[in-house]
Write a structure and sequence with these properties.
By secondary structure, the protein is an alpha+beta fold. Helices cover 23% and strands 35% of the residues.
Length: 201
């Protein structure tokens, strides 16, 4: 390390590489819930988790979130039944995932010229600045939504929305872990305060 201190540029580069190897902290899941004034029908009876209109429920990714939501509904007192079968209520699930790439705040190399003009030694200076900050990591944003409806009437009894952004290198970027975390956050304190947005770590 002593020889790096004699060369500030090398020291700065080594320091930035050390920081880039650190794992960024995981942000919370942002959750918003709404429910009908009468919540007496929630948390009991049979329920089927099905794709929301316009959503494909055949992908392995969707099925992972379906299983995670079914588990949470079971913990709340529901009896989960297969999608498409007769049930007291239906939980319509919508899911979207997208990759996000943050732009670097500034150019990696900048050149500035300063001082008075003239011959050699007159004060003309050229400064070169190097941005040693690591390139921002790609992230994955997941949005999960569930609407619980009365099967017979189609009336919405409860709706929850959860949003979570994590680095692609994080273990929580994997569908199996991410689905469990988001479903648990979505139903935490069910049915929740209607219209309130909370952050669940």
């Amino acid at each position: 390390m002593t020889h790096l201190l004699k060369h500030p540029l090398l020291f700065a580069l080594a320091f930035s590489l050390t920081l880039s190897g650190c794992v960024a902290p995981t942000g919370p899941v942002e959750v918003t819930r709404f429910h009908a004034q009468d919540i007496s029908a929630l948390g009991k009876g049979t329920i089927a988790v099905e794709p929301a209109p316009g959503h494909d429920g055949s992908s392995l990714e969707w099925k992972a979130y379906q299983a995670a939501v079914e588990r949470q509904l079971g913990l709340l007192g529901y009896s989960a039944v297969p999608a498409g079968t007769a049930s007291t209520q239906v939980a319509q699930l919508r899911l979207s995932r997208e990759s996000l790439q943050s732009a670097r705040s500034s150019s990696p190399v900048s050149v500035s010229v300063g001082g008075s003009t003239g011959s050699y030694g007159s004060g003309l200076g050229v400064g070169i600045g190097i941005n040693l900050s690591p390139r921002p990591s790609e992230q994955v944003r997941t949005d999960l939504g569930v609407i619980i409806r009365d099967r017979a009437s189609g009336t919405a009894l409860w709706e929850g929305r959860a949003s979570f952004t994590v680095r692609t290198g994080s273990p929580l970027a994997a569908t199996s872990l991410g689905a469990a975390k988001m479903a648990e956050a979505l139903f935490k304190g069910f049915p929740g305060q209607s219209g309130e947005t909370i952050a669940v770590k």
